[in-house]
Amino acid sequence: MTDLVAESARAVAFLSRLPVPDRYFENTETEIAQSARAYPLAGVVVAIPAAIVLFLLLAVGLAPLFASALAVACLIFTTGALHEDGLADCADGFWGGRDRDSILAIMKDSRIGVYGALALILMVLLRISGLAAIAAGTSAISAALALLAVAVLSRAAMVWHWHVLPAAKPDGVAASAGRPDGDAMVFAALSGGALAGVLAYAASGFAGILSMFLLAAIVCTGFSRIAREKIGGHTGDSIGATQLVCEIASLLGLALWI
Fold this sequence. Notes:
single chain, mainly alpha
């Protein structure tokens, strides 16, 4: 249990800009991947500020669309736009490069192209509209819990993507971070799925939970297949992009049953 708490703290530090006590990093030289099993649990912590913002704004009667926009803005601020950066790089590289080497070169470039810009615009619109659809059809607390649910499930998807694909660049940052083993992936999937299901139940019941799982699995599998075909594996950017595309898919799955 102590190890899981420490891993969760390190995962929060890696996935967000939230402050984490230094004691969780003392006397440890473990790979980043070894904390991956705690990503779904870290997802709860990372998304709590945005969930609180959403709940309070809805509770005082603010329109669901505006409240959802501010909640998504809070979530982006909390994560430091870590996943958004990965999505933009993947969009530019996957659809702007002609071969594996050119794709990886584009993804490494810090500049954002047309594909990346469009991906970010669509991502923000879809997250806000999906969350607003849920908020408009349920209570403030249920909407806030749904936000936590998709944060948890999408971070479990990150671990699956990271595990099933080899590192695209043997000398890249993702390769140096290591790779979650099977036990870490299974723990993340089971704990993330169970926690996400409990959190999402109030918003859309069993039907919404099932469609949330199904759509997230389809999108995660599809995106991982694209990454394998385009670059032969995963990068830090593709791991981050997985979180966002699966979050959007999860929001759609819940919104279908509101």
